[in-house]
Amino acid sequence: IPFEKYLSPEELAAELERKRLEEQRRLLEQADNARERALDSMMHGKLEIRPEDELQKDLEKPEFMLTKAEEQWNEEEIKAAKEFEKKEKHLFEEREKYRKALEAELKKLQTANVEGMNSFDEKLNKLFRHRIEIQKTVNQEELKIVRLARSVYQQEYLEDRETQLSKILDDLKQGKVKALEEVSEAKRAIDRLKDEHEIILQEDKVIEKQFKKDFADLDAFTLDVLVKLYKRRPKVTKQKIVTNEATARSSNPFHVKGEDPDKAFLE
């Protein structure tokens, strides 16, 4: 933000006095500057006279060449006219030389300009190719970075997936161990029930054999009726065993419901 410096009244008065004196000095220099006036009147305001400036000036013809016809010139005027023509010819020659020198300088400058442009274009083209190579290298490095980032992401994803699968595998292993324990328990229950069933069958066979032996003196028809009645007797112990077995089967997760073979056998 622009701002003006604060000046005290004393400083402001001193600044105004300084400006007044400087303006007074400048006016005095303009009023009495002999050097500038002399330079402007004699050398057109220039300290150095250049040859090309002189060549641009036209020679002034003598007054008699402007006021008299050529037939009226005397010998001195004829000599002066020839001297003027000689100077004018020399001026034209010098102008021509100067023009040719300028043309040669112009061609030289144009050639140097073309060479400079070609050199600049070549350096610019070289710099452009160098820039392309650098950009190519940068792009390759950026591609490497992208590939590395992708590899890191894939590695992290695979590690996370491996952790998830490991947890699922551990859960399945624990489920398998539990299922094997339940299968072993069910097999032990089945074996126990089979043993109990076998004992019951053996007891029934022994009792039936003893029953037939006790009634061996009866006729065959009466014995057959008694055997059938004997088989239809209430079997509290066997029913209790069957009930226990059914309870064990219902608690067994691997039990398939169907017709009870022991019940069919006992009936």
Distinctive features:
single chain; 267 residues; mainly alpha; rod-shaped
Topology (SSEs and partners):
Elements: H1 9-31, H2 34-43, H3 51-56, H4 63-67, H5 75-214, H6 220-231, H7 236-251, H8 261-266
Would you write up a description of this structure?
- With 267 residues, this protein is an all-alpha fold.
- The two termini are 116 Å apart.
- It has helices at 9-31, 34-43, 51-56, 63-67, 75-214, 220-231, 236-251, 261-266.
Task: Summarize the structure in short.
The protein is 82% helix and 0% strand. The chain is built from eight helices and no strands.
Major sheet attributes: none
Number of helices: 8
Give the H and E element order: HHHHHHHH
Shape: rod-shaped
Mean pLDDT over all positions: 77
